[in-house]
UniProtKB/TrEMBL annotation:
Gene3D superfamilies: P-loop containing nucleotide triphosphate hydrolases. Belongs to the ABC transporter superfamily. The keyword Phosphoprotein does not apply. The keyword Amino-acid biosynthesis does not apply. GO terms for molecular function: ATP binding; ATP hydrolysis activity; branched-chain amino acid transmembrane transporter activity. One of its GO terms (biological process) is L-amino acid transport. This is ABC transporter ATP-binding protein. Keywords: Amino-acid transport, ATP-binding, Cell membrane, Membrane, Nucleotide-binding, Transport. Residues 2-230 form the ABC transporter domain. It comes from Noviherbaspirillum cavernae. SMART domains: AAA (SM00382).
Amino acid sequence: MLDIKDIHSGYGDIRILRGINLSLSQGEFVGLWGHNGMGKSTLMRTILGYLTATAGSISFEGQDITGMATFRRAQLGIGLVPQGRAIFPHLSVLDNLRMGAVSFSQDRDETVSSVLKHFPRLNAYLDRPGGLLSGGEQQLLALARCLCGKPKLMLLDEPTEGIQPSIISEMVDTLHRIRESTGLTLLLVEQNQAFIGSLADRVLTMQKGVLVNESSTRDFLNNTHAFASA
Ligand SMILES: Nc1ncnc2c1ncn2[C@@H]1O[C@H](COP(=O)(O)OP(=O)(O)OP(=O)(O)O)[C@@H](O)[C@H]1O
């Protein structure tokens, strides 16, 4: 469903991605692992169109989206949960979710309710400003808000950063359940190897803007030490 061919991208004259090739099949969960500053978030931003690729092509469900505006990519079904969550801290939990469903004005409340079924913990806080939730709850809110946009492909950037273990395992269960019920495809950027191991079907390793390795999740976990020093 996503085909990336020889993508180059960066910030002004600063080249970060140097020829990325990547294909995701519908319903696949793929982990993207690498140390800080290797270009993982830059790849996410380039897929969604916050950054324009300087070379190469990206297609989504057979359609070339390389030069397409970000909002159009979102309308096609690409959703991002950014690093740091970026929820609206002064809006209530419910209004955060409504913002996620803003493209579905006809059935907005239905969309929000169906997503909330997967997030019982948020149900208790619907009127509370998002900024007053704990870090883990905010991460769940960011996930839920993205799902309110009915993405076919979710780009999930370092969701476990600073999050307590109980919420991490809740996130794992929730994402598996959502894949079963909607066929969601996931590209997951993470440095937490155990978290990648519990979600991804295969794992790509990025180093200095290049994908240097692809392995099954089992091999990735068995070779954790080797990857840690990559
Ligand atoms: N807005 C920007 N302007 C210039 N350089 C940037 C910008 N954002 C990121 N970079 C640089 O691009 C490189 C890749 O950053 P990126 O955030 O993609 O890495 P990452 O692999 O996601 O790492 P992390 O896990 O720390 O987020 C880094 O050297 C970073 O300093």
